[in-house]
Amino acid sequence: MTENKTPPARAAVPKTAQQARRQSELEVLIRARYPLIYVVSWEEQRVLREVNQIAERLNKKVFEWSVTMGLVPGGTSIQSQKQRDTASQDPLVALDTVIEHVEPALYVFKDFHPFLKGQNMSVVRRLREIAESLKNTFKTIVIVSPMFQLQPELEKDLSIIDYHLPAEADFSKLLDRIIGEIKDNPKLKVSLTDAVRERLIHAMLGLTLAEAENVLAKTLVQNRSLDADSVDVIHGEKKQIIRKSGLLEYYDSEEDIHSVGGLDALKDWLRRRGLAFTDSARAFGLPAPKGVLLLGVQGCGKSLMAKAISNVWKLPLLRFDVGRVFGSLVGSSEQNIRRAIQVAESVSPVILWLDEIDKAFRGSRSSGASTDGGTSARVFGTFLTWMSEKTQPVFVVATANDVQALPPELLRKGRFDEIFFVDLPSTMERKEIFKVHLAKRKLAANELALEKLALASNGFSGAEIEEVVVSAMFNVFYEKKKMTTEYLLRSIEQTVPLSKTMSEDMDGLRDWARGRARLATSPELLKEPDTEKRQLEL
């Protein structure tokens, strides 16, 4: 771990109450003489440690099997060629050896899942025979694999244990051990306040203990310290996990709350809920917020706000492209949505962003089973059930333009904490939006008549105001002039806003939102001046 010292051996992390329950479940099944146990976990060594502890208490031997080593005594080193049993590398030979052994023992079969699918019916048949034979012995086969694969023939003979990823207490003990290892190294510095330590531990949630130890070592090498910057290194490690899934996109958001003009009521709501992910909030009894649905006019900052939440709360932002879920194979879409959910939960606390959810799940309302065999409806049903029952801190931010396309089940209370309606910006908000986009492009806003621009752009969305600024910049650059209010006003005059071309749709959206959704802008900002009179004065 350090440069000038040999790091001590990696010690086993003390078990939490949750781990103890899982071990108790495994031990109960072994004591009850369950013949076949399937443990689903990425942490093979962690499972092996617990199996060895159980074996020691029950006075049993431990044997391990892998396709490279065969069936060997537990703890056999990979360098030990003499102990390798090449004959038992064949799974059928290994299973026969289990039958031949007489003494009480636990047999850990590593990565055995490929032999439980496809054309390996001889292995499946042999396992069924062994399951019946082992019931009257003190021998148990424990299959350890990172994924669950099983032929239907084995469903009644096998018991499954989902071995969850480490909890906060595990990472806390790991962090304490690493701090103890480096405390005497003058080249490495530890600067962790209670708040930073809490953020660091929360950031590691979703990693295995091995991944967490590696990424902490990485931040020590990269930054020469453990401090607030280590959180970003851990998020970078999680980014790799997300990329491997292929269903979610880790979004590096550079936007913050100041990048969004207006929407003060929504901003205040988000600030108040950002603290709900802390340990003090849980001690107070607050649950983690579930999510927010942003409805409204196109180009008014819904997606921008979704990106900004990530920086406000200092949490990773995952973009969920529902289109990737729908695969060509029958049943793959349902499997994909479950996998995407599992990945999001494994790296929680996290923000899950579904952009234009009205388009993503449109088929679940209209097509039914007539066009896609009911796939859209089943995928949507899985997602809705998860939103209602999820316990992991995954905050869902969904945006939508066409409320009529949204299934009514999505709008039911309990799916989202709140539904906000994002309307066209008011005069005060348009003035603020001009400031944001001018500052972003290093233009002096104080040299321009912002109030005149805000009044002239009545009915413009935030995206249209941005385009006005960009268009004026092209003209200024071409003519080699300085930006003035007149250039921007000319750009406004040449733009036909969406509010004019789709006025009927926007009126319908406002009518629906009235009484059904909360306004993203406070009444104070919505107060409009006497526009015609002010324009004449200006």
Description:
Mean pLDDT is 80; it is low at 1-14, 16-22, 367-371 and 531-538. The protein is 48% helix and 13% strand. It is elongated. The strands form three sheets. Strands 9-11-12-13-10-14-15 form a seven-stranded mixed beta sheet, with helices on both faces. The termini are far apart. Helix 3 (91-100) runs parallel beside helix 4 and helix 19 (462-479) packs across helix 20. The chain has four domains: 17-162, P-loop containing nucleotide triphosphate hydrolases (Rossmann fold, 3-Layer(aba) Sandwich); 168-245, Helicase, Ruva Protein, domain 3, CATH 1.10.8; 257-422, P-loop containing nucleotide triphosphate hydrolases (Rossmann fold, 3-Layer(aba) Sandwich); 427-537, Orthogonal Bundle (Helicase, Ruva Protein, domain 3), CATH 1.10.8. Strand 4, helix 4 and strand 5 form a beta-alpha-beta unit. The protein is an alpha/beta fold and 538 residues long.
